[in-house]
DNA sequence: TCCATATTTCGAGTATTCTCGAATTATGGA
DNA sequence: TCCATAATTCGAGAATACTCGAAATATGGA
């Protein structure tokens, strides 16, 4: 990811409704949620939500797929991955002070919803 | 880090001049740079930069320290760390699809400016 | 075909953000 | 004390973002 894309992605997430949408879609899992359900869940008007979904889609954070009359949106975790990697290496120059503690924290995760064992290394 | 702070931090970085400032300060290292030098380097007016520095400071991304007539700003890499950890665990629920590839990428870093050996594990 | 549902697009109003010149505050040195 | 330098605060203008009602588009079913 290069700077401009990172900038757009950061700006997209730096808005409350959009961050809420993304978090909701993450929790919804790979199946995603249709626009109406998101709007209902977050108490946002359909047209306002549509604008935000469009912004999230434009920067690759969500994926849209028509499913009959409704459109299902799902979070693109790989784009979040790209953003985080950008922040760690391009933005922060791969500084060990940044990366080491994160690497450490990754090992210590306790996941509430995952099915597999705790360690992933 | 909780949601509101993450939101402010994301919004702060989602603006070109501020992202540039942060990146510049990261490259400057722990010693930081004084406001004038940053303004000169990025070709931004002093008062405009001051507004952005204030925003970065408010969300904890930079630290200010008066040094005689000038004020030295330095990047707070721990706050970037907190943001990344928020994105990985609170925002993305610690999904393995997100975390595993990042963990993998961390091991593979080749650092250009670090003095120590490549491996940090 | 006609109607209902789901979502988006359009246009306008309001709010927020960004930038700038001018004025102000703070510090150090003559 | 007086002046020069460094940075911030103030106030205003322009641009951008956010939200909303209304209208348009798309799909599925009677």
Can you give keywords for this protein?
homodimer; 121 residues; mainly alpha; Arc Repressor Mutant, subunit A; three-stranded antiparallel sheet; 6 helices; 3 strands; 60% helix; 12% strand; DNA-binding
Description:
The first copy, chain A, has 121 residues and is mostly helical. Chain A has a single domain (1-109), classed as Arc Repressor Mutant, subunit A. The first copy, chain A, is 60% helix and 12% strand. Chain A contains 6 helices and 3 strands; from the N terminus they run ααβααββαα. Chain A has helices at residues 3-13, 16-28, 35-42, 46-58, 77-91, 96-107, and strands spanning 33-34, 62-67, 70-75. In chain A, strands 1-3-2 form a 3-stranded antiparallel sheet. In chain A, helix 1 (3-13) packs across helix 5 (77-91). The longest helix of chain A is centred in the last third of the chain and has 15 residues, at 77-91. Chains A and B meet through helix 1, helix 2, helix 5 and helix 6 of A and helix 1, helix 2, helix 5 and helix 6 of B. Chain A binds a DNA duplex (30 and 30 nucleotides) through helix 3 and helix 4. Chains A, B: InterPro entries: ArsR-like_HTH, HTH_ArsR_DNA-bd_dom, Metal_resp_trans_reg, WH-like_DNA-bd_sf, WH_DNA-bd_sf. Chains A, B: This is Transcriptional regulator.
